[in-house]
Give the backbone structure.
Amino acid sequence: MEGTVASWPPPAERALLGKSIKRVDGPDKAQGKAKYTYDIVRPGMLYGRILGSPHARARVKSVDLSAAQSLSGVRAAIVLADPADPGKSAINYQGEEVAAVAATTEEIAEDAIRRIKVEYEVLPPLATVEQAMSPNAPVAFANGNVAKPNLQQDGDVEAALKTAAHIVEGLYSTQVQTHTSLETHGGICEWDGDKLNAWVSTQGVNASRDGVAQALGIPQANVHVVTDYMGGGFGSKLGGDLQVVVAAKLAKAANAPVKVMADRKSEHLVTGNRPSAYAKVRAGADAQGKFVAFDAETWGTGGAGQGSGFPLPYQVYVFPNRRRSHRDVYINAGPQRAFRAPGHPQSCFITEVVVDELADRLRLDPLELRMRNLPEDAPNQQWRKYFPIGAEKIGWSKRHPTGDGTPGPIKRGMGCAANRWGGQGNRQTRASCEILPDGGVTTRIATQDIGTGTRTLVTMITAETMGLPMEGVKAAIGDTSYPFAPGSGGSVTVGSISPAVRVASENARDALFAKVAPVMGVEASTLIAKDGRIQSRTDRSKVMTWKDACKQLGTQPIQADGAFDPALASVGTSGVQFADVEVDIETGVTHVKKIVCVQDCGMIVDKLTAESQCYGGIIMGTGFALFENRILDRNTALMVNPNMEWYLLPGMSDVPEIDVTLIDQDRGVVGLGEPPVISTAAAIANAVANAIGARIRKLPITPDTVLAALEQERAGGTA
Amino acid sequence: MPRRKDEPGFSRRSFLKTVGAGSVAAGVLTRSPGAEAQTVNGVGPGAVPISLNINGQTHRLEIEPRVTLLDALRTRLSLTGVKRVCDRGTCGACTMIVDGKTIYACSTLAIETQGKKIRTVESFTQGTVLHPVQQAFCERDGLMCGFCTPGFVTAAVALLEKTPKPTPEQARRALDGNICRCGTYVRVLEAALNPGGARVRRAALDGSAEGAQLRNGGHRG
């Protein structure tokens, strides 16, 4: 019987898969009908607010809630940084949570927060990695400000560098980037006896349940998490968020549902970021343009007590000898969290700029140098194919050597970079599919749609399997009571859920076949579901509409489960990006004209939403390249730009022309959320250097960075 | 005074000055002697009755003068289509149309919009037929997580009502006051420049049977 071995339909027979299918929830989103956590109001709900520390390093000596509690409309007030508990009274970054209130309106909650009296012992903070690494720095962290170096070695770097015809040496760095999700972190908590119902803005309903249960010390079984719509997370919403835990505590204290949503300032301060990266690099190539060695001493900060790891060199090009020593540096700033392709944009930037510098030393076309140092092709490493496609699309043959010699202040340049990612599905993923006697089909799975289109994909795969139109199927997601799916991080979602949904749908469909085959007078194994009908492959006269077939179920629906099947998924992606930029060497302003992206992700499920991931990644990568930067005051370690007018995200006029080529491959499904963000900044940095004739070794490429690079070049060169 | 997004010569500084003065008038004057006689602005800080004309309907509510138009709609009237994101007039997620002009509702006091015609994203759909702009956002995938989408849709509707056939440059400028983090801009711009197909646009506007078929269903791209 078809379906006993899980498989995707052959490409020619796919009605929906691989095509451009609109989101099923597009109309609700475009009409403002989609209810996000921020929008949900429960009967009798109170508004909670959290008081964060105004100091980056301090000890809470006392907290007096009385003035807040006496305010009319305040129903609960709690201390989070208990002065009596040394573990909890230590403040290690601005915005770290001190106390919280719940009140009948948000305005009253704000007033109450302002009435809380906190005595702090203010301590000298560490605002920069330089301060933290200085021998005279105060020791702000129990295990020291700098972690022990972590050494990785492969081959003999020193010996290899002696054989190099050219060596590039330099210091490269990338900034701290904040996620800046539009819907802030938070949730609504409502107790029902000892059971907790929580509506949470999360990328992982199960992880949220587990984290909240652990923080509250209650069984996981007592926590029910729902995420119908969520307004962006990018890696920062993968755990049991403190905002939700606080909402639960306030709800208990007030005996009423409580909503706590972080405000925009705390969203920048406490809900995660991409760590900074610094790398002192020595890299060499032989006279034929073969890389011989990559040697790096690296460090970076993920804020208070958090790591800053990133791979180096970026694992695209072959460096036969590698040495790398990394130190995590701790400063008094909000802790890092996973951020779309953790470590990769940093690593890609550093490595790809080094590669371009080696190309200049060798007087070789940087594309040619890349081609000489790429590994052999594999299904998930196709750079040898993609670089020429991208080069053709950007017009690489018109690229001039480093430094645009045309007169006038506007200089034009091109650059490129490659990327790779894993994106393997989670093998524990499950789904269930139900067929009702009236023909209705619902697939349930505890995944969540973080904006990627997951709800649409669940619908598509079920509809494809049943031979039904999209309207004939419902996807029920974002609920811990549904079968397990992993958190939406690491680009694992589509690779996890697609196989499980396919198998569950096949099992449900095959159960229906078994039910109707005797009625139709055929073998169930000959039946197929297509175009809203069930029909025999061998006898075309044997046909039944979907609705009539389902009527045979009488009063008993079909409920079938499905588990992840590795035959339907694959692992690993590869891609390249090219940038074409204009730089004004008088003002230092960079304008990205065009980005070309060539990207694979295994078998494409929905081409429309897959393309949107590429557009989105490239635009976020453009922000990382040119604008975004968490700036801390060097004396106080307070964030200078915890808002959206000075923490700059790309806007409509900053977005270049974007040319996306998706390669649909004959293998299983792999995730795509992360790969497109990785190479953009590196490609732009190389394009800027190609335009202005001075090397860009740090992000973001702000006007002052460009002007400084030009100045340094005039003073004797950056290389 | 409502913050107009498209006012020529408008600056953040002049905006802050205006709002500051407004808040002082609303919050402090009643406490000074003789304030009652001075000005009609002397209300609050407690809740006062106000009346808002939203999407053609009059809503009466009791709110403190400090409550923003955004919060009045979201937390008092359950109109949650528009979102609170930056909460200080930068990102456009709270965009509404007041007397034909787009404004940032997070930075506009509700009490100051009395007597004005307020339109929100909830008003654009005719029956079950999406507005051509909404239709185009869906067809071209001009939305991802969707949190910025109502603001973008509102800004695009306002643009097309004023400039039915905008150039790409005009559309970019009109949408420059809105921020998206997922990176939908490319397709948002396409949607603003190609609202629906001509067929969809006509059907949506005349409410015909053909239009009804084009409502929320029809997911095939």
Summary: Residues 7-39, 198-221 of chain B have pLDDT under 50 and may be disordered.
